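[recover] target loaded
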């Protein structure tokens, strides 16, 4: 599937992609005027004006500055597109609109005119004038739709329903005026199914283009308060990409796409915090379009050339994008000292919690096969066998061999290692284990997303399965995790940082000081003398994520009421 982009449309028609010159008129929106200036819950105070015209309504200066910016940034020369973007650009009497438009259009060589407006701001006299403009310029009306769900439109304070959209686009089409639908995906309360229904309704109307944005939380908006109050979570790039894919699949092949992502000044954005830049996101999205159900279309190539995946339930990558394979060596294999012990002919055992894509097990097995001395026995715990299907798409001969064997019989054996895979909740599986281990690799998703495997109660049981001087190794440096380890009587030390600001953690069942470095005194004080280091609790090892988080939140509140600080500052 290939999208017809607006830039390609312009190149076909004009021989090049004309550059937009943003023009902000001294107009507002009708529902702002009626509702004490509130407007839509997502809209910034300035109506999302172009960056280079933030501080002026002088149309001549705006156009002059806009052309200078377009030349400097893009090397763009005339002709240009006159783009009336901010607020509602038909929200005035006809005489006022004519004066503003004619002044702006006389100041540069414009071939196209794009006017952003609302479906409830197109009276008959304005429509007549727009039809006249359409004879002099190629006119596009960018119609604010946002959603076809009337409940959503009411919640976001749009001030109109979807019937207004239908009426407006039909009138514009009858006049021969091209219309683009401005859509926001990920509005509060909406799901991918809602996005699909919006797409179906847009596709049934005579829209010639769509401009699709992800929802962004901007400072000083009603949406910012909803976000701060925890009443909704904006979509990350993977969730948005899936919704966008579902949306475009409902469009006709000749639909033109003016935009696929939102943009705003970084200092104005509260959320979401995407790790992908715009170019990376578009590359990821077009890969989804091209490869469809190919598992690698969802893979993320990390900085060391290996791949990871994004987990939709935990809303995280399986590994750091600094290097999925490298992380396994840097956080688990190297600080453990297993390479040196295998070289001395020792037989070692590993409990691998959170097999995931198999990188940690693979790194350990590869080390044993490289040393060709001693033996390595691994027990891996994994909750979801579907991760093996994802891992099977990843490159690497030994990796493929490991994953294929585990998919067949949940075990693997090579010259110097063997692995058994146990499937199910690690909290249940740990109860059936009888042996003790030299190493425990604790590689669950982050404590905030997957607290079930980071509780004091779970770590206490892990300690029971450690040999003398055995160690738990993990990437996590979270205060509640290190707090749980310290309270379990483990010797907690820090490993080198990789892919994250802080280093990982090694917790030793003994006094060995050869691995890692001591925790700073300040951090130990924070853990022991403030609520930051309060562990998660799950006494029966069967609580839900929500119950564990709520239990800790409640205990933190009680301690704070008794005078225990959130952070110990010394």
């Amino acid at each position: 599937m290939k999208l017809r982009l607006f830039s390609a449309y312009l190149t076909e028609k004009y021989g090049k992609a004309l550059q937009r010159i943003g023009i902000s008129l001294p107009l507002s929106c009708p529902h702002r005027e009626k509702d004490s200036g509130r407007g839509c819950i997502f809209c910034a105070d300035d109506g999302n004006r172009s960056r280079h015209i933030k501080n002026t309504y002088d149309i001549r200066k705006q156009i002059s500055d806009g052309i200078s910016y377009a030349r400097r940034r893009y090397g763009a020369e005339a002709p240009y597109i006159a783009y009336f973007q901010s607020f509602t650009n038909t929200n005035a009497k006809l005489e006022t609109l004519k004066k503003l438009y004619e002044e702006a259009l006389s100041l540069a060589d414009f071939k196209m005119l794009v006017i952003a407006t609302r479906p409830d701001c197109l009276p008959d006299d304005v429509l007549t004038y727009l039809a006249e403009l359409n004879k002099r310029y190629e006119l596009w009306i960018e119609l604010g739709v946002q959603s076809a769900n009337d409940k959503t439109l009411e919640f976001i304070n749009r001030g109109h329903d979807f019937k207004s959209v239908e009426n407006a686009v039909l009138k514009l089409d009858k006049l021969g005026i091209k219309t683009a639908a401005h859509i926001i995906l990920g509005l509060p309360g909406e799901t991918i199914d809602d996005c699909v229904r919006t797409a179906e309704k847009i596709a049934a109307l005579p829209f010639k283009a769509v401009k699709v944005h992800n929802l962004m939380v901007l400072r000083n908006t009603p949406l910012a308060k909803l976000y701060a109050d925890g009443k909704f979570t904006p979509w990350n790039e993977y969730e948005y990409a899936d919704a966008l894919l579902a949306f475009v699949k409902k469009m006709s092949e000749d639909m033109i796409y003016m935009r696929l992502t939102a943009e705003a000044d970084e200092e104005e954005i509260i959320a979401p915090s995407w790790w992908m830049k715009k170019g990376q996101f578009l590359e990821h999205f077009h890969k989804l379009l091209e490869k469809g159900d190919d598992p690698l279309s969802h893979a993320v190539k990390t900085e060391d050339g290996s791949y990871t995946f994004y987990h939709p339930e935990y809303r995280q990558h399986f590994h750091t994008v600094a290097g999925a394979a490298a992380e396994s060596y840097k956080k688990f294999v190297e600080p453990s000292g297993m390479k040196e012990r295998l070289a001395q002919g020792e037989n070692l055992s590993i409990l691998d919690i959170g097999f995931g894509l198999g990188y940690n097990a693979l790194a350990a097995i590869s080390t044993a096969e490289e040393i060709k001395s001693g033996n390595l026995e691994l027990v891996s715990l994994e909750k979801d066998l579907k991760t093996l299907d994802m891992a099977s798409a990843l490159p690497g001969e030994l990796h493929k061999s490991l994953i294929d064997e585990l998919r067949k019989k949940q075990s693997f054996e090579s010259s110097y290692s063997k692995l058994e895979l146990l499937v199910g909740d690690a909290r249940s599986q740990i109860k059936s284990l009888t042996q003790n281990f030299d190493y425990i690799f604790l590689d669950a998703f982050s404590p905030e997303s997957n607290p079930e495997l980071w509780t004091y109660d779970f770590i206490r049981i892990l300690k029971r399965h450690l040999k003398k001087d055995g160690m738990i190794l993990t990437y996590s440096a979270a205060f509640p995790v290190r707090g749980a380890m310290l309270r379990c009587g483990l010797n907690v030390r820090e490993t080198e940082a990789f892919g994250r600001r802080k280093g990982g953690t090694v917790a030793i069942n003994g006094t060995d000081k050869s691995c890692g470095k001591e925790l700073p005194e300040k951090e130990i004080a924070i853990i022991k003398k403030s609520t930051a280091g309060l562990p998660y609790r799950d006494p029966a090892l069967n609580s839900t994520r929500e119950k564990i988080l709520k239990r800790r939140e409640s205990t933190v509140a009680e301690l704070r009421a008794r005078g225990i600080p959130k952070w110990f500052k010394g």
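[recover] notes: The two ends are 59 Å apart (CA to CA).
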